[in-house]
Structures
1.
Amino acid sequence: MIEVTASLLGRSVFLAGETVKCQITFTNVCRTNRQSSPTKARPATLAWASAQIHCQCNVTEGRVAIHPPTQLTTAQVTTSGNDTAFVPFRGERGSTVLSTRPSILFCDLTLAPGESHTCVYQESLPLDAPPSFRGSAVKYSYKLTIGTQRFSCATKLLRVPFRVFVLPGLNDLTVYSEPEELKPNNPFQTNPQTENSLLDIALEVLQTMTCRKGPSFYNITNSHGRVARFCLFKQAYRIGDDIVGTCDFTEATVPCVQFSVTLQSEEQVAEDCQCKPGQSSTVTSYSKTQELCIHTSKTHINIAIPLTATPAFITDIVCLRWHLHFEFVTCKTPLPQMTIPDNPSKAASLQGPAQLDVDTMVWDLPIRVFATNPVYASSVSLLRTDTSCCV
């Protein structure tokens, strides 16, 4: 019996354009029991082994309609009745939207009892690849599939799932590289300077897009007057960042009892893929904060973007956007004022009213959410970087 073990090198989260590396080991395992002895073990031979990366797209039929279909379904691609061919997406649900060229690892490999053979498979992800996403209408999932076959046996498939981020602006890397005449020339340097990898350039681009701080102020009003003034220190964030803002009630003319802020993502299906005209989008809530602000002059909010979330993106089928959802509970009548005694040594107390005539208003503030360092996302990923099977 041959045991096949596949392990992703480094991490389980990658940026589109990066190279995925996987170490694959084939071992002739000797198992003994009462009826057999290790001396009877024989060499085992594998006819071939191949590896390939593919992305599957699953859609909800009640929400997404693709006419005509732009991708072939797995049932259409799979060769009927042929279980010896290498079809990496055999048995998978949905359509294959991305598939790299299959790479042959070896042919006609014979392993003695206890002997192992290790090879490294690597493949670059296309820059225009869709991101990993698990939504209510659309799901994109990536897998690296290893296929192998023994003579006169069916093909065995081993799959290793991983996650993919997409960062806009990496289609032309020459924009971020310095011209030859502007590069520093050090005559005392013995080792030539190496070019930055795609990950280094992507992190620089990501830092540039999300580090700019420009406070934006918003006057929140309703039909009765001014409720609050909200300040957001920047508009672009990475998953894992904290969204910090302040609420100022000093110049408010409408008393606010309490307010809540919820971080939400909105999944909108493209118009030509909607089952019904004007189909509503799907909103998913994440972090939430709530503040009681009666007689409050200023307060702040701090909302974390989880590392497990998907950054904003757009494909031919779906678009994912992010926003902050505000809910303000305001009074229709002025609140009773607190009487402050003239003598500071005297104490004063205020008892809140038993009933309040309130009104609720909502407001959505769009924000931009980008990817983050895939190393950080891998630290909280639940995807296993290694798996094994027996042939």
2.
Amino acid sequence: MDRTSGFALAVLTSLIFISGCATSPDSEEASNQDTAVESGSTASSITDPYENWNRKVFAFNQGFDDYVLRPAAVGYQTVVPGFADVAVTNFFENLEEVRNFINSVLQLKGEHAVVAAGRFTYNTVFGLGGLIDVATAFDLPKRPEDFGQTLGYWGLGSGPYLMLPFLGPSTPRHLTGRATDGLVFPSPYDYAESPDRYYALVLEVVDKRADLISAEGMLSGDSYVFVRNAYLQRREFLVNDGRTGKDPFLQQGNEDVMLDNF
């Protein structure tokens, strides 16, 4: 499988971002309010200049989720035992440690790089190829790093908020980082034959969507605004290693909510 196919993998995997946990937007009116957004060093504000278009794409994505992705995820949770579901999630998350390690190095984060390398080693060797997350028990918590965060670390602005068909919430910087991660970093699908590679890909997407079902009850108010604010806050949190500025959830009355799957 070539790197173009690798990019396709990254695109399809990111279907999990469609959901925002899947409810229809409550309003078609543009609010154009400033929201917190990821930045290279400090929190900044950003408008949603394409909100009218973004809302239409958001509704399309939710329709796809309602009729295709979520039913598949519900069926998956019904059929697959809980321990097996956790094992599948652990396996795919373990593969992401290679990306975490390389981007930690690019961001000059030595401790994060050591943790990523340790997690991959412990989980692969002692966790049955990553099916069991033994690294967390060794006090090595996951520290996600992607190329979008790397670009932010070196000062590249995020650009305007975008809602993309199938890809879901994004910004130009995050989209560039996602494409780079998909093209550059090794993937187990590179070594699989058809149709096995596609079975594995569908399994990863459905498993991640299933993990979001339990978070659906957190949506409140205008779901478009909620998902936008959750996404932007999460990206800011990741880029700045937890040093956030203005909290958009305080404006929405959801102070304690964090959608980690963003």
3.
Amino acid sequence: MATVKICGVRTPETVRELRRLSVDHIGFVFAKSKRQVSAEEAGALIRELHDGVSGGESERPLAVGVFVDPSMEQLEAIMDKAPLDVIQLHGSESPELCAAVKQRIGVRVFKAVSLERESRDIPSAENIAGRLDRYRGAVDAILLDTHDPVYGGGSGTTFAWECIPPYQVWAREAGVQLLVAGGLTPDNVDNLVSSFGPDGVDVSSGVETEGTKDLDKIRKFVERVKRS
């Protein structure tokens, strides 16, 4: 069954609702974005996430911090105030930085790979290997997302899903998860999951109404992923 990540969360009310649903990851955006939160804000939301949980992370969604080209010093300073379970990197971060984050900070690392919205060229195994082989052992998951020229990801638009299978092959050989983001909504996510079977899906604007998280859309999104 695919995991679900709801990204761009900013309110304790949303955190409380996501705890009631079968959500696996809650994303807090530290990169430049209209959904950006400070370390202090994220810390308060993570405390809400942990509140009343005695059995550890298996009994709650994992807290994911989304960054674009952060320094190690920035990550360590944020971790002091907001104890993340996962760091998701959306920029041009090197394999060396990814490995250092895992070793020094002791969290899981998701690395985003941006795909062009208009391109329908299916990448070859050699092309993917040349792009990703250096990240073997340095990351826990690869996240496919639609390229955004300003923020790197979070564009709210889909890429050609036909590009997913060769990335899945690479991910399975490398022993990492393959997650998919980019333009997902309650109306299209069941088609993605049933047709391509990613290990997980990631949504932000697709479960919003006028820029605010819509709990009805979130419930529908989660239900349609888990039944696919």
4.
Amino acid sequence: MNDYYDVALRNYSYIFNFEEKFEHKDTRAWMTKNWTISFYFCGLYMILIFGGQHYMQSRPRFQLKGVLSVWNTLLATFSIMGAFRTAPELFHVLKNYGIYHSICIPSFIELDRVAGVWTWLFVLSKLPELGDTVFVVLRKQPLIFLHWYHHITVLLYSWFSYTEYTSSARWFIVMNYCVHSIMYSYYALKAMGYHPPRAISMLITTCQLCQMIVGCTVNIWAAQYIQEHQPCHVSVTNIRLSIAMYFSYFVLFARFFYKAYLSQDSGKKSKTIVSVPSQYARNNSEKLKGQ
């Protein structure tokens, strides 16, 4: 335990009790045995959201501003905490060991319980994040493909990657926590009735696009290390799935960015267009109502 503290305190000024007691072997054993449950969750999710849309067709939309404010505030707080508890490990590895180690050696599980527990919480968080779509359905906002495709694929990939202790995941997790910290904080402010400047929404989408580019780059580096026969704790299957996922996200978010900020119609909108799919869908809905 003392050796652990010597390592951990280089990155963290304080270690919480639940972080200290975290046992990655127990969580991995459970996730390895049960990760396919995520498919059932996704199936139920699809039934509920599209069934919910059908149910809401003949019913008035819910406002849910108070609940939405609390929901986004909780997710923003969780994301900020996750970013602060995982980013130090990535920076420490990059500074002291380099790119190869950060991509191929899974020390975030073996040597760092703080990053380990927040990695596990990250994976689990993809399940409650499906609740974002509940608000879309109940508020009768158009449910675009990017929204539900993103939620489903992230959930499935995250749960699968945890069973493999995918070492490159430290990059994906830190990036996602950081982007979500900004994104859900923006959501929360909007739900509370504030009007952050349009530049913030553009910044969020730009960060999302950068996230996809870095994700693809990390996977390409991992593939190169494997081709060079260097030990790398990333499976070829995982690399293929991850590149396909990140590239598809990049295409969809780039298309969204163009429609929201660069097309001629985007300049005519009187309301701020938010970079998140659900908010963009709401603005589209308002536009259609005026036609």
